[in-house]
């Protein structure tokens, strides 16, 4: 049994391969048994297909492969490939793909590697592309069941925020639309090598599509218009997406005061507004 979460083991591997951490690729490796175990336990991947983004040296990958049906890891950094291959050599249910996750043809990967079956995403995400990765995955038509992801704590706070919180933003509404998001744990910066400047949070997003029929483009145009000018009243901020006359009529029909700010509106309010505007 390897102990890839051990700081000493990681240091020895890094030295042996003469590996250089890349700040621009967001390389902060997790070196703590408890947090690795917590992520794997909450990801709940026994007998499941797993897509891991950025396996690093394979720390979380190794623990998941013990019980998962199959683990497919996508890593951009070619200097990590021999390290991961060696660390994962005992597993037949493991496949490494050398690609940039943002450019990867995920439909093809899911069809070829998972036979098009349901899968879970697990990742200590490279922070510089956290939101584009989440957007790519949740807006795809892929059979993704859930995502257990480590993100910067401030980003997690924004994702989990509701109308009452100061962190409430278009990202909060976006995440709520596509998932039921739960906090798994906060993670101190001390458990990474090298240590980042900020703390992290692990979240589990259970994906769902809002069952209501709503024009998603119109919905997100409205949400972005609202939060782009969040200090303005919704009558003025949403006017960037919809004519004021229609807005006034929709507010009246829904009993929404036009002097509110976007941060006072819930996801349901935005959905109802989008639908009502469509009927005008
Ligand atoms: N999973 C490892 C761990 O927890 O120790 C490493 C996590 S580290 C925060 C992020 C990983 O994502 C690194 O291995 C990095 O090389 C990889 N990565 C960065 N950008 C990527 C991209 N565009 N596509 C795929 N992998 C990427």
List the helices and strands and how they pair.
Blueprint: H1 7-17, E1 29-30, H2 33-43, E2 49-53, H3 59-65, E3 70-75, H4 81-87, E4 94-98, H5 106-114, E5 119-124, H6 130-138, E6 144-152, H7 153-160, H8 170-178, E7 179-187, E8 192-193, E9 200-207, H9 216-228, H10 234-237, H11 244-254, H12 267-279
Parallel strand pairs: 2-3, 2-5, 3-4, 5-6
Antiparallel strand pairs: 1-8, 6-9, 7-9
Helix pairs in contact: 2-3, 9-12, 11-12
The structure holds S-adenosylmethionine.
S-adenosylmethionine binds at residues 25-30, 53-56, 59-60, 74-77, 80, 100-102, 124, 126, 129.
Briefly, what is this?
The chain has 280 residues and is α/β, with parallel strands linked by helices. The chain is built from twelve helices and nine strands.
Count of DSSP H/I helices: 12
- The CATH superfamily name of the largest domain is Vaccinia Virus protein VP39
What is the count of structural domains? Answer: 2
Straight-line N-to-C gap: 64 Å
Largest sheet: 7 strands, mixed
Give the name of the CATH architecture of the largest domain: 3-Layer(aba) Sandwich
Query: Order of strands in the sheet with the most strands?
Result: 4-3-2-5-6-9-7
Pairing-aware structural class of the strands and helices?
A: alpha/beta
CATH fold name of the largest domain? Rossmann fold
Q: Low-confidence runs (pLDDT<50, min 5 residues)?
A: none
Shape: elongated
How many β strands by DSSP? 9
How much strand?
15-25%
Overall pLDDT confidence: 96
Could you tell me the radius of gyration in angstroms? Answer: 21 Å
Ions and ligands: S-adenosylmethionine
CATH top level of the largest domain is Alpha Beta
Helix % is 40-55%
